[in-house]
Amino acid sequence: MRILIVDDYATMLRILRNLLKQLGFENVDDAPDGHAAAQMVAQQKYDLIISDWNMEPMTGYELLRHVRADPENAHVPFIMITAESATENVIAAKRAGVNNYIIKPFTTEILFAKMQAVFEKQMAS
Amino acid sequence: MVQIAEKQTGELDLTDLSDSDDERIPLKDVIALAEKVTAALKPLVRSLDRSMHQELREILQAIEGLRTELSRVDANDIFAKRIPEMGRELGAIVKATEVATDTIMNVAEQVLAADRSDPEKYAAEVEQHMMAIFEACSFQDLTGQRVTKIIHTMEVIEERIEVLCKMIENNNIAPQTSGEPTAQEKRNREKLVSGPAHDGEGVSQSDIDAMF
Q1: Given CB atoms, is A24 within the 8 Å cutoff of chain B?
Q2: Least crowded by CB within 10 Å, which of A7, A20, B180, B188?
Q3: Which residues on chain B are in Cβ contact (under 8 Å) with A61?
Q4: Is A44 in a helix, a strand, or coil?
């Protein structure tokens, strides 16, 4: 399984990489913003994208819409991990097709539970 | 030729001049008339002079008052010293937290990767790494002190802005800013970016879970 993690904080990328490693996911790529992630998605197939929201020049929300608009990647599970906890953000992300939404700070258990829920739903459909 | 008469009181008598059919007036009479008019206007000019002087004095006092108040604001001190200093403190906080996080994560990675086949050696190694974590956590003391300095500076700036606000109130000056959002604020609104919420604000993880 190949996972793409997107965050403009190198520390958060490192935390995510370590947490995913502990959960048994070793095949992880990272990108520092939505724009770089979009370029990587165009070149590489991913089984899951985990992205922050607040990034320059392309936000995680814009990346989500970009991915969903691309027929090749429209089905790729997308989890948003962000400090943006306004209701309008969650609703906008849900409408854009996000599969799950995690509020920072988060725990390994929450990350694992959301990943599991996303994969189970995908397998069921 | 008409001679302008002068009353005993010293006032000009223009009766002869207006009654006469002769349109020629000698220069000395014109000069005399001008002198008399000037003399008659002197008290008025003096009173105008006094009132203008008074007005100017009041304007000067108001300017002096504003200068004194503005010197209390000391904008130069705020922009040349205090705000750059706050920027430096914040930069130092970011750097300190980055270094500490890096150290702690390095240690955590080393612990996770450590060889566990020899329990005694493993325990000693973990203990050593834990000490490194304690050391790294000392950053909190320094960042706390830096935050305290920033809070103090903010209080000074707040105090001076209060002086400015009072000056504006006292002088009935309408604010020039319209309260319109800045370009960055507009952009953040468009992109739904508002940053981390404070405790009790925003939706909780359990609320979000219910939505999914």
Answers
A1: no
A2: B180
A3: 191-192
A4: coil
Q: What is the mean pLDDT of residues B112-128?
A: 93
Q: What is the pTM of this model?
A: 0.67
The residue among A112, A43, A105 whose CA lies nearest residue A79 is A112
d(CA B195, CA A85): 8
Higher pLDDT pick, B167 / B109: B109
Q: Does residue A37 lie within any of the structural domains?
A: no
* Contact with chain B for residue A19, Cβ under 8 A: no
Q: Are strands A78-82 and A48-51 parallel, antiparallel or unpaired?
A: parallel
Taking an 8 Å cut-off on Cβ atoms, the answer to whether A103 and B211 are in contact is no
A32 in a structural domain:
no
Average pLDDT over residues B62-70: 82
Q: Residue B205 phi/psi, 5° resolution?
A: -60, -40
Tell me whether A122 touches chain B (CB under 8 Å).
Answer: no
Average model confidence (pLDDT) for chain A? 94
A73 and A67 Cβ atoms separated by less than 8 Å? yes
Mind telling me how many Å the CA of B187 is from chain A's nearest CA?
11
Q: Which of B128, A33, B26, A1 is nearest to B16 (CA)?
A: B26
Q: Say if residue B205's pLDDT is above 70.
A: yes
- Lowest mean pLDDT segment, chosen from A45-54, B124-133, B168-177, B200-209: B168-177
Which residue did the predictor score with more confidence, B180 or B156?
Answer: B156
Kindly report the CATH number assigned to the domain that includes residue A92: 3.40.50.2300
Closest of A45, A108, A117, A105 to residue A79, by C-alpha: A117
Q: Read off φ and ψ for residue A31, nearest 5 degrees.
A: -140, 145
Please indicate, yes or no, if residue A33 is contained in any of the structural domains.
no
Q: What is the spatial distance between Cα B83 and Cα B182, in angstroms, rounded to a whole number? A: 20
Give me the pLDDT at residue B179, please. 67
Q: What is the count of residue pairs from A and B with beta carbons less than 8 Å apart? A: 69
Domain count, chain A: 1
